[in-house]
Recover the amino acids of this structure.
């Protein structure tokens, strides 16, 4: 075949296949770069351990700037005096906060309106939790929830200082000016499949969900690790003895543990070596101090779910 005839002849089927493959590569590559949550340059790295052990936190400079902006706290209200009678003597029907002074109480109520209540509409401000015609009326479900949330916040700040330190938390920590926190989550149920139950026991997995970083790991890890206070619910990926017994971690527990770790990593915006030493993940003696803080945090979450959040489920509309 001459050069001229080869050029003028129509392309064969391989040409169309190659063009389709090239298009697919471009599309997949673009998705991976811009939609998969990858860090794009410039990148900031922070070394947290010995050199050569991959003990480095990697972050996008752009993401860090956005995170710092999103976590800027609101301006603190003016300090309130603790002088005067306790507010329980003024409002006898109070369920919580009766130990505050009237000035402290009014300051906190104004903060609730700023941190939690809607900014517009019939439910704006005090009306979100109260019947403004009768402030002592407790008929609104939001009033009941708010009272429990106040008790929960006080519990965190007094009973869980091993996790929150002296900084503590407020309503704003989770709500950020919204009636319902943006990232509230109990257990993601996954999506239904066409096969229904024909595939047998699925161990709550093989369905990609955001809670596990879109992997097929089990999405019910919260039921196993974050809603129970039993000693047997240890978070572990391998046995602690040479010959594992029924009391030790099995493959299913390891999968749920990995799912929990991915969820924590995504939630905090960090990688594994913030809390673990890369050369020996299970050794406490070689772990960074953040692992102790995380240990207390996991147990705090269990307590909050068991004592405060789960019991409120029947109250919600």
């Amino acid at each position: 075949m001459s050069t001229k005839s080869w050029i003028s002849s129509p392309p064969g089927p391989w040409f169309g296949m190659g063009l389709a493959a090239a298009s697919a590569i471009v599309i997949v590559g673009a998705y991976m770069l811009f939609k998969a949550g990858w860090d794009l340059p410039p990148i900031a790295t922070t070394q947290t351990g010995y050199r050569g052990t991959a003990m480095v936190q990697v972050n996008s400079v752009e993401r860090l700037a956005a995170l710092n902006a999103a976590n800027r706290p609101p301006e603190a209200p003016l300090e309130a005096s603790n002088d005067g009678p306790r507010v329980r003597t003024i409002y006898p029907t109070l369920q919580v906060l009766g130990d505050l002074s009237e000035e402290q109480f009014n300051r906190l109520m104004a903060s609730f309106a700023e941190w939690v209540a809607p900014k517009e509409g019939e439910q704006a401000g005090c009306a979100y939790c109260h019947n403004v015609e009768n402030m002592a009326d407790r008929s609104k479900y939001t009033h009941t929830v708010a009272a429990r949330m106040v008790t929960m916040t006080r519990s965190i700040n007094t009973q869980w200082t091993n996790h929150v330190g002296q900084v503590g938390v407020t309503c704003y920590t989770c709500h950020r000016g919204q009636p319902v926190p943006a990232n509230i989550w109990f257990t993601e149920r996954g999506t239904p499949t066409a096969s229904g139950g024909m595939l047998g026991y699925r161990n709550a997995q093989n369905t990609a969900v955001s809670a596990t970083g879109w992997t097929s790991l089990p999405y019910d890890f919260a039921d196993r690790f974050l809603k129970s206070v039993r000693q047997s619910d240890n978070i572990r990926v391998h046995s602690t003895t040479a010959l594992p017994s029924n009391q030790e971690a099995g493959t299913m527990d390891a999968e749920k543990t990995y799912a929990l770790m991915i969820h924590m990593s995504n939630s905090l915006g960090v990688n594994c070596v913030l809390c673990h030493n890369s050369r020996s993940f299970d050794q406490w003696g070689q772990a960074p101090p953040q692992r102790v803080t995380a240990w207390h945090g996991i147990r705090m979450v269990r307590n909050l779910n068991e004592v405060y959040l789960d019991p409120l489920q029947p109250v919600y509309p």
